[in-house]
Amino acid sequence: MSVINFATAEIGALLLVPTCLLAQPLRLDLRARSLRSFSRVICNLVFGHIAFPPATFLVVKGVFSGLGSANAGDFWNWVKSLWAWNSATYLYISMMHLPCWLLCIYFLIHTC
After folding, report:
1. Tag placement on the chain: N or C end, fewer CB within 10 Å?
2. Nearest to 74 by CA among 21, 66, 104
3. pLDDT tens, 65-91?
4. 42 contacts 58 by C-beta, under 8 angstroms
5. How many other C-beta atoms lie within 10 A of the C-beta of residue 55?
6. Whole-number Å distance between alpha carbons of 34 and 77
7. What integer pLDDT is reported at residue 61 of this predicted model?
8. Is Aminoacyl-tRNA synthetase set as a keyword in this record (predicted)?
């Protein structure tokens, strides 16, 4: 991916690597009832939420231009502009990021 777009690969790595490394079924951590397992549950929930592309877009837009101006239509316009510009980010999100995110969410809600 870094051959196509280094910045996209770097952002993806910063979001997906911690998410993939921490993914462990939440039920196991909730049964353990220790501080370490509780902190892992919190990290899993935070990374699982932030790694979802629409959520990340809304958080970044909210930070830079205020939460009052962020809406779902802006995400759709951004995705359409990626498609129109033939950006590698569109391919990265659809073929790499979303499948990895879905796999991590599957691990989190998996029943043992």
Report:
1. C
2. 66
3. 877 777 778 877 887 887 787 777 777
4. no
5. 13
6. 44
7. 81
8. no
| DSSP string of 2-43, one letter each residue | TTT-HHHHHHHHHHHHHHHHH---HHHHHHH-SHHHHHHHHH
Q: 110: helix, coil or strand? A: coil
Nearest to residue 25, comparing CAs of 104, 101, 102? 104
Assess contact for 101 and 16: CB atoms under 8 A. yes
As a 3-state breakdown, the chain gives helix, strand, coil percent values, each rounded to 5, of 80, 0, 20
User: What is the model's pTM?
Assistant: 0.63
